[in-house]
Every structure is written in structure tokens, then in C-alpha cells.
Amino acid sequence: MRIVAEQLGKRFRREWIFRNVDLTLESGNSYTFIGPNGSGKSTLLQTLTGVLPSSEGAIRYERQGRPLEIDDWFRHIVIAAPYLELIEELTLDELLTFHQSFKPFKDNLSPHDLADRMRLGHARHKEIKAYSSGMKQRVKLGLAFFSEARIVVLDEPTSNLDKHGIAWYHEHVRQLSSQLLLIGSNQPDEYDFCPNTVDIMQWK
Questions:
Q1: Which residues of the chain have a pLDDT value below 70?
Q2: What is the extent of the structural domain holding 45?
Q3: Domain count, the chain
Q4: What does the alpha-carbon distance between residue 84 and residue 144 come to, in Å, rounded to a whole number?
Q5: Residue 32 near residue 196 (C-beta atoms within 8 A)
Q6: What are the residues whose beta carbons fall under 8 Å from the beta carbon of 116, sequence distance 6 or more?
Q7: What is the pLDDT of residues 66-101, one digit of tens each?
Q8: What CATH number should be reported for the domain holding residue 119?
């Protein structure tokens, strides 16, 4: 899988968040987008994944050298980010079953198995709204780590995690080597394994 951005730009009203972004991102690689708070890392990630429309330029998704239709991008992407909300009225079991209905889990994992891998088996039957912020973050990351998707996007991945949750993150994020991994972060310990860093300030 490949993402190609050509002269990509995004603005809100009269302010350009970034301009003239030329990037080629390839499966089997990880890329961390860095920059000061408020510099536009999340906006760039959302634009690259089609969550936000670009203001100029073009994005192309390619699989085996052939472009994908934009309506099919979502089938290949999974995102964990603070700005994406979980359905809090569902229990974890219900949420995982719902998610599995449109994006299967790796290795034919069942919702029960996945809850255990998230270290949340004890809370499978609780509604998500009763979870702590750290537990919710583990759910988001677990869906990203274990869903069948060629592109994994993690924005501020260790937000709200305690030291045990951070260790769990490091254990699993390193297993995504065959996928295309995009990380937005200002915390070096979130991406110390990542060989490619992209400073968004070059496009300001």
C-alpha cells in the first residue's frame, strides 16, 4: 500500500496550516510527524486519511501499483486519536462485535480474545462510558493494533495511559512492521523505534 501526496495544502479561512506537501508513504515503513503543539500534525494526518478534505493538491492511494477509489480508502485504514469518539453507550463486547462487522480482526480474534489482549477482559460487560480515560485509550489502540488494515494511524498514542499502558503500547506497536504506520507525536518515547520523522514545520 502507498499514499502519495502532491502539492497538498490545507487552510482554515485565511490561514494556511500547511502547503506544498509532497510525500510518498510506503507499507512496511513507519513515519512520525513531529512539530510544536498547534502546528498542524493532526490536521495533516486527518487530511492524508481523508477525514478532512484538502484545500489544494491531491492525495492518491495505491495498492499493487493501482490507484484506489477514494470511497474505498476507509477499508484500508484504522485510526486511534483523541478526536475520535467511541460509542459510549455500548459495552466493550458490543463495541468489538459492531466493529468486527465491518473490519475483521487479525488472526480471527474473537471479541472475547481481543478484550483479553487489551487487558480489559474484566470489563467486557461494562458500558464504555464507565471506563477511565486510560481504558478508553487502550480500546482505541487495541482496535488499531488488531484490525485487519494496511494503514494504521496513531495520533498522540499514549495520551492518558499510565506506565503499564505505555509498556503495553510499546509491546504491540512494534508488531506493525508489515503495515504502513503513521504517528503524530511530540513525545520521543512514543516513536523511538521509528526510523522516519517528518517535521511539519517545513511546510509552514
A1: none
A2: 2-202
A3: 1
A4: 12
A5: yes
A6: none
A7: 999 988 998 999 999 988 999 999 999 999 999 999
A8: 3.40.50.300
